[in-house]
Amino acid sequence: MKENMMKKLDSHFGDVNKLYIGEIDMKNFWEVQDRKIIYKSGIVSFKEEKCYHTKKKIIHPFFKMEFLDWVNIVPLTTKEEVVLVKQYRFGINEVTLEVPAGTLDKGEQDPQLAAQRELLEETGYSSNDIVSLGKVAANPAIQNNYCHFYLAKDVILTSEQDLDLTEDIDIELVKLTEIDSLISSGQIKHSLSILNLLYAKEYLNK
Amino acid sequence: MKENMMKKLDSHFGDVNKLYIGEIDMKNFWEVQDRKIIYKSGIVSFKEEKCYHTKKKIIHPFFKMEFLDWVNIVPLTTKEEVVLVKQYRFGINEVTLEVPAGTLDKGEQDPQLAAQRELLEETGYSSNDIVSLGKVAANPAIQNNYCHFYLAKDVILTSEQDLDLTEDIDIELVKLTEIDSLISSGQIKHSLSILNLLYAKEYLNK
């Protein structure tokens, strides 16, 4: 799969584009008539858009969350260990095991630099060999943002953690060969962490 | 990877559990002091919890979204074509190509039945051979819910679509062998769709 996953579309591109013939028509079905901000806090905002369907002649409210882009990074040591982070997560009221991750800061343009920053802040590890593994839409139904995936090769511990006051993060080194078991058992359960790990394994052909 | 991904943890389980020694202490750092509902609409609610950190003696507001669980399903025909859905998504203002998906209805208990229901409603296809591929936490940092993944084998067209008034969904049959290209090119970009497709390919050993 690696070859297909990592290369850009080549000869298929013409055919694939045909899938999108209907795009413009579909886009034009809904018109935003009104927009109200429900919640705004720092770099996050939640909006309700009252939309009008030009064919069906109906009005419906849609909910939308606006975030800055997110970054996830798989840090790999020379001993083929993955540096994971363990932290309490409010969404599910549990401590989870994840890859280092975070959001772009306001004004921050380069997701790769953001990923390297998050890696250093959350773990104290850094790398001079960062591989971009692509990006995905976090949840296009209700969110506007993308999550960018990276692999940091040959990471080394270069500093102390530099955490926000509200963060408590422990580090766990896990063998790359144990990642599949941790995913299948549900110990690693964050959808974006799993996707980043699978992309990294694919890239490494492991 | 298939073998590892699909089997439950066996001999590793003891070791893996050691990763969670700190869990109880970390859980007890934050106490919810106040909780207010910011937005509630149907089966979705957004809350802000004012929390007190018992060690650091600080108060901080955390945002949390409560959804019912979600389901994603990869429908595969006997000709090894995947039945994808194409629809306008408000989050990114684009038409996307995704696997059939949805949320559990209020009172609906069985995610597999929900996935079969969504498959039938969105595409008109159905199957008597559904495989469960596990679940992931959609985003444990800010959401409480899980997304359950399925593979529907040997699907056949058995009815018309049965869409909500607010839905406009087109069907696209794509060869299973073209899925990797569609992901790498960004044509398929929804994080959960991609994860479901990778799990299905892993299960099918393709």
Automatic annotation (TrEMBL), chains A, B:
GO molecular function terms attached to this record: hydrolase activity
Nudix hydrolase domain: residues covered: 66-196
Pfam families attached to this UniProt entry: NUDIX
Xref: InterPro entries: NUDIX_hydrolase-like_dom_sf, NUDIX_hydrolase_dom
Signal peptide feature range: none
Gene Ontology biological process terms in this record: nucleoside phosphate metabolic process; ribose phosphate metabolic process
Name of protein: NUDIX domain-containing protein
Organism: Orenia marismortui
Cofactor: Mg(2+)
UniProtKB keywords: Hydrolase
Gene3D superfamilies assigned: Nucleoside Triphosphate Pyrophosphohydrolase
GO cellular component: cytosol
